[in-house]
């Protein structure tokens, strides 16, 4: 039993573990506070049930983190290709047979749970990209041998996600571009790709915005995208229902002031339909004020900073790229969620990692955190063993010098 605990106990960057713990506890409190309206609608006002459920998911998530971080991160290199092909199967199944919630078919029904296949695909494609970059460093500047194989799989994964979840596909593609940049892919290739994507996206937006709605309503979620862009860029003045979520998010943030109303005293949680997921940052700003909102933002940014430091310590490209890729994906998702709450972005449906109410999404987020901490752990342990070897070596030299 002691050996088992010694293997899974938290190791690596202890500040990163503290940040993960802080996000989880803060999320638990925020979910408990923000689900009161949902509780009265669906469970007779029993808010404790959502608290215990979220607590259970977080405990399971920490179990996943501790277990995954106990394995050496090089093991994920061998699994990356297999996980990628599994993600293709799950994404295609979701597009055809997925469960539709709030007008989007993003989930798979599994034993009473709904699993968002894109969460699994994010981890799989980042692992594959980092593995390929690490193995092809000698020919990474070559378009056909280095860049094209990565681009094909990244494009295919994002193309399977985009029809029902464009925001996740955009975050994932941006993350892969960053990983390729750090992995020494040719700047010329990345520049051309970015330019081509910018032109294609501009053309798509122009076509969607100028196409009559009757032709868009049966084509993926184009009609939803059009409405969100229109409502964000030019919100209607005489239709409060259209801007209902954003208006109440602004009210929540404004009424929070500098120090907030204190935990549990939110009023806008009774009006925001997704107060416990998409707009949980607005509830946090209302209860903890400007100081609390900035503190939560800094927690994510500080985690990214600690992950970036791994690049300087990692002796292998694969470990560094994994840590940066997964941490950037998680933090970018958090930043977009916050931007939506303060009306800098149109509504995307992205949750706040470890903070928003969730189930299987917490498990996949915990998986990503576990892989990051595996890199941190084994880098730290590698440095310790190296220090020990250097100490033994210096002692032997001192002994020899004394003999002489």
Q: Give the termini distance in whole angstroms.
A: 49 Å
Q: SSE string, helix = H, strand = E?
A: HHHHHEEEHHHHHHHHHH
Model regions low in confidence, pLDDT < 50 over at least 5 residues = 383-404
Q: Please list the strands of the largest sheet in the order they lie side by side.
A: 1-2-3
Count of helical stretches = 15
Q: Biggest β-sheet, characterized?
A: 3 strands, antiparallel
Description of the molecule:
By secondary structure, the chain is mainly alpha-helical. The chain has one domain (77-366). Helix content is 72%, strand content 3%. It has 15 helices and three strands. The protein has helices at residues 2-8, 14-34, 36-42, 47-70, 75-97, 117-135, 143-161, 166-182, 187-209, 213-216, 222-233, 244-256, 280-313, 317-341, 360-403, and strands at 99-101, 104-110, 113-116. The protein has a three-stranded antiparallel sheet. A hairpin with a 2-residue loop joins strand 2 and strand 3 (113-116). Helix 13 runs antiparallel to helix 14 (317-341). The longest helix has 44 residues, at 360-403. The chain is globular.
Can you give keywords for this protein?
404 residues; mainly alpha; 3-stranded antiparallel β-sheet
Secondary structure blueprint with pairings:
Blueprint lengths: L1 H7 L5 H21 L1 H7 L4 H24 L4 H23 L1 E3 L2 E7 L2 E4 H19 L7 H19 L4 H17 L4 H23 L3 H4 L5 H12 L10 H13 L23 H34 L3 H25 L18 H44 L1
Antiparallel strand pairs: 1-2, 2-3
Helix pairs in contact: 2-4, 2-13, 4-15, 5-6, 5-7, 6-7, 6-8, 6-14, 7-8, 8-14, 12-13, 13-14, 14-15
């Amino acid at each position: 039993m002691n050996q088992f605990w010694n293997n899974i106990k938290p190791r690596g960057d202890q500040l990163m573990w503290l940040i993960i713990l802080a996000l989880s506890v803060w999320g638990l409190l925020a979910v408990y506070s923000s689900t009161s309206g949902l509780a009265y609608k669906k469970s007779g006002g029993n808010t404790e049930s959502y608290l215990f459920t979220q607590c259970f998911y977080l405990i399971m998530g920490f179990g996943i983190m501790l277990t995954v971080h106990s394995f050496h991160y090089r093991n994920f290199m061998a699994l990356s290709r297999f996980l990628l092909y599994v993600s293709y199967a799950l994404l295609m199944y979701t597009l055809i047979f997925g469960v539709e919630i709030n007008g989007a078919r993003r989930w798979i029904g599994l034993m009473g749970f709904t699993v968002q296949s894109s969460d699994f695909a994010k981890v799989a494609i980042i692992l594959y990209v980092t593995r390929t970059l690490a193995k092809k460093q000698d020919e990474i500047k070559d378009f056909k041998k280095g860049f094209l194989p990565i681009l094909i799989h990244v494009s295919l994964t994002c193309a399977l996600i985009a029809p029902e979840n464009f925001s996740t596909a955009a975050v994932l593609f941006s993350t892969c571009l960053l990983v390729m940049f750090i992995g020494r892919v040719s700047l010329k290739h990345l520049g051309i790709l970015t330019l081509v994507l910018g032109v294609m996206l501009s053309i798509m937006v122009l076509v969607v915005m100028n196409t009559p709605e009757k032709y868009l309503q049966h084509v993926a979620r184009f009609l939803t995208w059009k409405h969100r862009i229109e409502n964000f860029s030019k919100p209607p003045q005489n239709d409060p229902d259209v801007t209902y979520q954003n208006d109440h998010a602004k009210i929540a943030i404004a009424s929070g002031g500098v120090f907030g109303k204190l935990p549990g005293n939110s009023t806008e949680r009774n009006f925001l339909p997704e107060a416990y997921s998409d707009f949980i940052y607005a509830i946090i700003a209302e209860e903890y004020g400007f100081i609390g909102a900035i503190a939560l933002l800094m927690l994510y940014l500080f985690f990214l900073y600690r992950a970036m430091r791994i690049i300087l310590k990692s002796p292998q490209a694969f470990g560094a790229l994994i840590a940066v890729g997964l941490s950037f994906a998680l933090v970018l998702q958090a930043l977009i969620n916050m931007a939506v709450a303060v009306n800098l972005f149109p509504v995307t449906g992205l949750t706040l990692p470890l903070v928003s109410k969730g189930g299987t999404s917490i498990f996949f987020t915990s998986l990503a955190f576990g892989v990051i901490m595996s890199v941190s752990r084994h880098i730290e342990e590698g440095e310790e063993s190296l220090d020990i070897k250097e100490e033994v070596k210096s002692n032997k030299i001192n002994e020899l010098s004394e003999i002489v």
